[in-house]
Prior knowledge:
Layout: H1 10-30, E1 42-47, E2 55-58, E3 64-67, E4 71-74, H2 80-92, E5 101-107, E6 112-117, E7 123-126, H3 133-139, E8 152-157, E9 163-168, H4 170-174, E10 190-193
Parallel strand pairs: 6-10
Antiparallel strand pairs: 1-2, 1-5, 3-4, 6-7, 8-9, 8-10
Amino acid sequence: MLLFSGLSGGGWRLAMGVLMVGAMSLGALASPATYIINPGDILRIDVWNEADLSREVLVRPDGYITFPMVGDVKTAHSTPAQVGHAISSALGQYMNETPPVVVSLVSTNGNKIYVIGKVNEPGEFLITGNTDVMQALALAGGLNAFAKENSIVILRRRADGTQVAIPFQYEKVKEGKQLESNIILDSRDVIVVP
């Protein structure tokens, strides 16, 4: 806050813009993919010069959050930057100027994958970075002796609600073949090991 104390008029907007671009650049360096918000995540929302509006919010199971003066805000299939823009635009209808809004992740509790079937430790797993199929199977303790290595499928729900089954041949990948099938998992993917 002290950095901006001598700024007036458009100066603070310029300084804030520089900080936001810098933060976005650091985020881009830290992660090659942009994080998509999931139900169960906790977001920190900071509204510039409006301490009473800044807060942490939980993303509901329906993919929405509730924010003062704005009401329900859809976060499903959105990045933190997109949610910040939506809140900023909505608040601009009630304020003299559209305030800058920064949305950051406090917790990614909604970023989960599931492994079921013939693995040693089936269950749900919280993932904090890019996780491929082999890594997910390792999290589940590996395949048990009765698993059908070449019949594994990844169930993925698309944004439109439809579901697809992606085949995965464990035996080929462990031999160093068909490595392109060892895909990075999306949040809520289910690996089925028959």
